[in-house]
Amino acid sequence: MPEFCTVTLLKVTAEQVLRRAVRWTERPYVGEVLAVHVPPTSEWDPDAPLALLPAENRHSASWPLAFSLSCLTDCMTDETWPQRSAVAAVVDQ
Questions:
Q1: Distance CA 88, CA 6 (A)
Q2: How many CB atoms lie within 10 A of CB 41?
Q3: What is the pTM of this model?
Q4: What is the pLDDT of residues 16-56, one digit of tens each?
């Protein structure tokens, strides 16, 4: 499980993020940067929650974190979610 997690909505692609090297000032906090596609909640299988994550990441993945990020993504793309505008306003600051 991650000891620290943050969520950031970026306006760049995963490829652009992965091309950027971790700076030496970030080393005490960041060992590596990894982009993983997390499927929508409708595709998750409760009997095999890690099955939808890439095999090479399953050993170190926190499926509760991955599932909660999937839920957040579902909510943020739902225009009818009542908290969407409040969350988007904080994120866009």
A1: 15
A2: 14
A3: 0.61
A4: 888 887 788 877 777 777 777 778 889 888 898 888 888 88
Residues with Cβ within 8 Å of 53's Cβ and at least 6 positions away in sequence, in order, are 36, 38, 61, 63, 66
DSSP string, the chain: --S-------SS-HHHHHHSPPPGGGTTT-S---------GGG--TTSGGGGS-GGGGGG--HHHHHHHHHHHHHHT-TT-TTHHHHHHHHT-
8 A C-beta contact, residue 72 and residue 7: yes
- pLDDT for residue 81: 93
Q: What's the CA gap between 72 and 40, in Å, rounded? A: 10
